Structure formats: C-alpha cells, structure tokens
Amino acid sequence: MRNDYIKLPDGYRESIRKGMTAARGFLGGISRGNGTREEQLERLRREIREADAIVVGAGAGLSTAAGFVYGGERFEKYFPDFKEKFGITDMYSGGFYPFPEEEIRWAWWARNIYFNRFVDESKPVYGKLRELVEGKDYFVITTNVDHQFQRAGFDKKRLFYTQGDYGLFQCPDGSGNRTWDNEEWVMRAMEAQGFVKNEDGIFDLPEDGRISMRIPTELIPTDPESGGPVAMNLRVDDTFAEDEGWKRASAAYSDFLRRHRGLRVLFMEVGVGNNTPVIIKYPFWQMTQENPNATYACLSRSDPYCPKPIEDRSLCISGDFCDTFRELEN
After folding, report:
1. Which of 86, 161, 222, 232 has the fewest CB atoms within 10 Å of its CB?
2. DSSP classification of residue 31
3. So what's the architecture of 11-65+123-163+242-329 in CATH?
C-alpha cells in the first residue's frame, strides 16, 4: 500500500518522553551550581562561543522580564473595567472567566491578545538573547505564546512554540487541526472598544479614558470556512489544534536534536518555571546526562538549580535577564 505522505517526527512528544524519564530518574537531589556567579558567567561565555549547537528553552519568566506582566500596573491600565465589574485581577486568570455574553468575552480577548502579542517588548530581553546566539547553530523551544521571538528577529525556522500562539484562532474542538490569523480581527475589535493609536502606532487609551467592555455582535469572530464559533489556539486541553506549521516546527526540533547528538551542545534554559517542567527543564536534564559533551545552563531571576548527577556540567545563574545578557556580551 502506497503512503500518500511521510509522517514527520514529533519533537514535542519525544521531548515529553525524555522529561518523564528524567522525572523518574533524577533522585540524587539538586544543586545551585559550582563557583561564583562571575565564574559561572565566564564558563557560559565560553560555552556559547565554542558550542557546536545551542538549544534555548524559554518559559514565562523571559516574557515577564521583557515587560509582559499579566498583573499589576499594566493590568490596571488596560483592564480597569473588567476588574471593577468581574473582580478579575490579572490577564491570565481572566482567560478562564465565564463571561456572561460573547460580546464581552471577545472584548476581553481582543485586549489580551493585542497587549501580549502585537506590541514589542518594553525591555530588550529577547533582542539581547538574539544577539547572544547570532551566528550560532541554534534552535529555540518555548512554552510562551506571545510571538516575541519572531518580533525580536529570531529565524522562524529555528523556533518551536509548543503551546500555541495568541495570534491564531482555531475551531473549539480542534477539528481538522486548522488555525488562522486573527490580527485583522484584533485591530478592528480594539477600535470598536474605543482604543486609539498613539504617535508610535500603538493602541492606547483615549484621552478621556472611556472604553467599552464589549464589541458589536457582528464582530464576534467566526470560522471563515464553517461560520461557526472559534477558540484561541492555546494548549489548555486535548482540543488544541496542532496545525501544519506546528507539526513542521515539532519535526524541525526533533531533527535538530538528532543531527547534534553527541556533539558539544549547550542546553540553555531561560525563565522556565515548574508549571510544565516535562517540556523543557526535565528533557534538558536528560539530554545533558546522555551526552557527555553537553552542558546545561539554568538562567533564572531568583532560583536556578540543576540535578546533582549533572552538577559538574551545569551552570546556575541568577539575576535580571537584561543584566545577565549584557554581562555575557563582555
């Protein structure tokens, strides 16, 4: 029987299998690394310079450092009406709120998407990271959904967004694994709420501060093929649509790891927490242990750590990412 297509490798699930192996196997405790911060920075500079390949694993901490904070002053500025009426206190939890009307729900999502997907970072964290790996054979795997790697100039073919993209819609049940761009809809929905573009071309509050907490019924987004309802392309359950672009990126990640197996590889984790460690953190541990030529680097604002069994080939560096990236340039 003739095959009509070639099944692509699935780097996402391969990575999770490695992560599960690490979760079961690393039982020897954790370490904060060896040496002073400056000594570890010097070692990391050398690894970046001499590595055959760099695999960057990025989590929410990187976007937070770039200014994409989901609560606090930023939330208070752009979502005051949602806070007052529904008691919502941050952009993340609001995404799960059972809004009473679709017009209100999609007004919420238009703002959430816009301010976390279609504006540039306020601090040059992604840009500094790009400069560090410029000219190197690198690949990025990330759980972030804000598209900031591409906005900062990273090569699209070297990126794998595992958990989706704020800039895409899909069918609510994930049928057909189809996605489509939502940028045009977002811009119309922002205007409909009363936001106006400032001198930099960025939507901001009008002078009188008056905005609407709903969009017109005719602006509720629909599937361009079926006319049915839509959902965000975010991995929250098994309805997540893994479209062709996602599958190609997953395969590219798998292929990158395969081509560099056994070589001098730097697995550099940046801003990865403990919400989904089997996607980046644990697989990086496992691949470092399997490859005696590999080095693992954990960059965290406050609490970098590594497993004891790979302590001698690990770097644990804390501090503000902007400062750390600048120091690594010197």
Report:
1. 222
2. E
3. 3-Layer(aba) Sandwich (3.40)
